[in-house]
């Protein structure tokens, strides 16, 4: 029986969502495989997870300039990026060494975890194939490692920046790492089940499990776009955001908390509005839905937005009123952004599925072993 280790982290839900998609792919390939999960932040010690999550939330909400500074330093200073990766790699790697065991395959969805895996590789303590899934659309230097067998990016446009992070690193394109339930479907049937108006223009607003960013502003802009627009706003675990939105008086607005129906709402939507470009953007892509990036959050959110727009997979709305105008144009001219859906379909066809990415990882690992031998 194959033993597969998935190394993720609870930093919101995006990294775990990627891990679940990879676990599904493993079970399709090896139905009897035993999958073990580790949270990299828990591995790094008691209290590390809550501390890192608080730092991240504070940076995004209150000190985005500091988050931008750190992000830009990773790119501008190769020494700074290498030092950060060495430090976190040693921290995570030494603790992983006690518990990693002898898996047949290791799949990482979190950069600090991948840093620990590279530390194990550098010290000859991890012979199993290692794949690192870069679930942000835009790679940054903390995501990419030269000693893993394969770094998997989300689109061909992400290969050059990934290689620029670590020249010579093995990089390949993966299908979007989302669960199989995220796929094109019968929008009309799903709307009937969810109680959504069949003829409305449904805009799904989803900004992660933490409900980051200018979500209320997005809802207001959507309501102003056209009378036929029905915004469905998923607040995740952000109860304060849900309360604020429920105070809006427009009956068209649908406000949801945490829901397990995200695949259905994504299929039901005409467009998906988000601000980070991580799991939500990939799920929309997998369902063939156009993506609007509204006021992207600092650092990785803005980088993801730029690269998704470059790939023809998203339209970025940063200034006041841009989302209103963009959605109004979509309502009045339904085929205006047909190219977005077509680009998503072409990418899905060319990338195949996650089984293809797993096969590429195993081939790359075999080449490494042959070269080392």
TrEMBL record:
Pfam family, one: Glyco_tran_28_C
Gene Ontology molecular functions: hexosyltransferase activity
Native organism: Amycolatopsis endophytica
Gene Ontology BP annotations: glycolipid biosynthetic process
Gene Ontology CC: one annotated term: membrane
Subcellular locations according to the entry: Membrane
Annotated signal sequence range: none
Alphabetical keyword list: Glycosyltransferase, Transferase
Protein name: UDP-N-acetylglucosamine:LPS N-acetylglucosamine transferase
Entry similarity comment: Belongs to the glycosyltransferase 28 family.
Entry annotated with the keyword Transferase: yes
Stretches assigned to the Glycosyl transferase family 28 C-terminal domain: 203-320
């Amino acid at each position: 029986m194959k033993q597969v280790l998935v190394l993720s982290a609870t930093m919101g839900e995006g990294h775990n969502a990627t891990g679940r998609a990879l676990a599904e792919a493993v079970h399709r390939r090896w139905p009897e495989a035993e999958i073990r999960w580790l949270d990299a932040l828990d591995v790094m010690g008691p209290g590390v997870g809550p501390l890192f999550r608080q730092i991240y939330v504070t940076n995004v909400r209150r000190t985005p300039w500091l988050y931008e500074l750190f992000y830009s330093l990773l790119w501008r200073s190769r020494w700074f990026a290498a030092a950060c990766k060495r430090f976190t790699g040693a921290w995570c790697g030494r603790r992983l060494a006690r518990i990693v065991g002898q898996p047949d395959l290791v799949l990482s969805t979190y950069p600090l975890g991948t840093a620990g895996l590279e530390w194990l590789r550098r010290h000859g303590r991890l012979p199993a194939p290692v794949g690192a899934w870069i679930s942000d659309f835009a790679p940054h230097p903390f995501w990419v490692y030269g000693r893993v067998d394969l770094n998997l990016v989300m689109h061909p446009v992400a290969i050059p920046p990934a290689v620029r992070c670590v020249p010579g690193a093995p990089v390949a394109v993966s299908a979007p790492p989302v669960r199989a339930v995220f796929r094109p479907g019968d929008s009309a049937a799903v709307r009937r089940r969810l109680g959504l108006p069949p003829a409305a223009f449904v805009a799904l607003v989803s900004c992660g499990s933490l409900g980051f960013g200018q979500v209320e502003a997005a809802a207001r802009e959507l309501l102003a776009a056209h009378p036929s627009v029905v915004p469905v706003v998923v607040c995740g675990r952000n109860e304060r955001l849900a309360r604020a939105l429920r105070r809006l008086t427009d009956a068209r607005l649908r406000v949801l908390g945490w829901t397990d129906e995200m695949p259905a709402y994504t299929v039901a939507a005409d467009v998906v509005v988000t601000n980070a470009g991580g799991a939500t953007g990939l799920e929309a892509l997998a369902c063939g839905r156009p993506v609007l990036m509204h006021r992207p959050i600092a650092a990785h959110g803005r980088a993801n937005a730029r690269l998704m727009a470059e790939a023809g997979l998203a339209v970025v709305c940063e200034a006041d009123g841009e989302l209103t105008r963009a959605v109004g144009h979509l309502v009045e001219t339904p085929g205006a952004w047909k190219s977005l859906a077509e680009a998503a379909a072409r990418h899905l066809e060319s990338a195949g599925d996650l089984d293809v990415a797993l096969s590429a990882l195993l081939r790359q690992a075999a080449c490494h072993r042959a070269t080392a031998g």
